Amino acid sequence: MKKVYAVAAVSLAAGIAAAAIVLSATEPEPLRVANDIASTYFDQSAATDERIRALEVAVDEERQARQLLEDELLVLIAEIERLSEASEASEASEDVQMVRLIDESRAAEFFRQSRGDRSDEGRANALVEAGFTLARAEWILQRESELLVDSLQARFDAQRTGDMQAMFAAGNLAESTLREELGDAQYEQYLLANNRPTSVDVGRVLASSPGQRAGLQSGDQIVSYDGQRVFSYTDLNNQTFSGEPGQPVVVEIVRDGIPMQIVMPRGPIGVESRRFGRR
């Protein structure tokens, strides 16, 4: 907007200057023409050829003066545009910096809310808010610590023996044991209290995949596979490997808040998570 005003002002100045030049050429004594030349082409007693040559000289000088003025105006316009662009760039830079600060602030707030208070007291309060009694919340925190120690020991032993399968199982030991001890209903409460997902979010559904043929859509939430509650892609993968490959299984999903069921063969589903890749 500043650039438009600047160019308009310069154009107005150029118009006034041009008008002044044209008007000066019609006055009896042009300001830009030498007195001797002016007196020659206004002298009625001078020869016609001399008067014509004098007029041509005057017109040529007027043309040169106008060209110089136009050149100066072009230089002025270019300088104004440069200053205007520099000002706009500075303002844009300030806007970008402000947006960046706002985004960083929002990200920090989201991270703070998602983590919550990670102290024992804060986590106990979160569990109570999720529906647990205080005694049950304190037991869960204590059990978490015990299971993590057991998991670390199991991974240590598996690594010493080189048993990669046991090492993988040890990594899921604490989570799977806690889920088994809590039961699916309380485990879901536990996940909610820790701001963790309680279903499998479907990203892109691969073309010609079992999931697409069964009617899965991007944005669906898988909550159960073959009657077993699934809270994560790990749960879902484990269920696809259970039972006989290819046998029909019922998959419970939630689409736009509406529970529904679809049927697909046991095995790879063919969906992409936004974060974890294909399943």
Q: Mind explaining what this structure looks like?
A:
- By secondary structure, the protein is of the alpha+beta class.
- It folds into 3 domains: 2-113; 120-193, no CATH class; 200-278, Pdz3 Domain (Roll), CATH 2.30.42.
- It has 10 helices and 8 strands.
- The chain has helices spanning 2-26, 35-42, 48-115, 120-129, 134-161, 164-171, 173-182, 184-193, 210-214, 233-241; strands spanning 200-201, 204-205, 221-225, 228-229, 248-255, 258-265, 271-273, 277-278.
- The strands form 2 sheets. Strands 1, 3, 4, 5 and 6 form a 5-stranded antiparallel beta sheet that branches.
- A hairpin with a 2-residue loop joins β5 and β6 (258-265).
- α7 (173-182) crosses α8 (184-193).
- Mean pLDDT is 75; it is low at 1-14, 18-34 and 99-115.
